[in-house]
Amino acid sequence: xxxxxxxxxxxxxxxxxxxxxxxxxxxxxxxxxxxxxxxxxxxxxxxxxxxxxxxxxxxxxxxxxxxxxxxxxxxxxxxxxxxxxxxxxxxxxxxxxxxxxxxxxxxxxxxxxxxxxxxxxxxxxxxxxxxxxxxxxxxxxxxxxxxxxxxxxxxxxxxxxxxxxxxxxxxxxxxxxxxxxxxxxxxxxxxxxxxxxxxxxxxxxxxxxxxxxxxxxxxxxxxxxxxxxxxxxxxxxxxxxxxxxxxxxxxxxxxxxxxxxxxxxxxxxxxxxxxxxxxxxxxxxxxxxxxxxxxxx
Length: 297
Hints:
Elements: H1 2-32, H2 38-60, H3 65-95, H4 100-121, E1 136-142, E2 145-150, H5 151-173, H6 175-185, H7 187-192, H8 197-223, H9 228-245, H10 250-270, H11 276-291
Antiparallel strand pairs: 1-2
Helix pairs in contact: 1-5, 1-8, 1-9, 1-10, 2-3, 2-4, 2-8, 2-9, 3-4, 3-8, 5-6, 5-8, 9-10, 9-11
């Protein structure tokens, strides 16, 4: 029983991470209506930039840990924001009205470019952060049952949960959220009512990239490193979650992401870890096939 409770608690930070990534993808997908992996690519890119600038501040300038973390986070958000703006305006927007396959190819091109930029900047070597905030905190401690999370897991989960609630509220209540819903439902009608759909497209994608960058920074802080293989896998899973949740409801996609994160954790705890991704992808494909709705004109 204690082991099962520990695994449930271990799944909470991963569930929060998948939830925010699925939410971010749904926000972008609502206006692009094209499946692409650029959200996952920017997620991985942000983590690598964070680790690189942390390493420079820590190893070359011998700055204190909080300042190194701040420098890494600011650099990550800045460079990811610039990359997202360029990708949205010069890659995805021109391809938006083309065939869906063109967006997929463009997304892979973005992935390769970002991967090579990060690889060259880090001189083709993995960068690891020193462990910090790894003190265990007992969340359940009674009758011989003890379940813990580290301080950084708790902090990351709280940040992601607050961010998800705040973004969900702003999307539902703000003027920008109403414009986003208008473009999501009918871009042409939104244009006739005075909404610049091209500008909102860029803003939505950059907002999704910002959420992904924050998630990348938090994940890198916990695991100590980031590689593009992980970013690609996260991106592919989030694409499938976005298709499952539907572009009209980022919160529903976030709930699906949380369920996926918890499922992955439990499978790793009780099943063969080498089969985890195979089982997860197979399950997602099966659910998509069973819930797909055909549309007829």
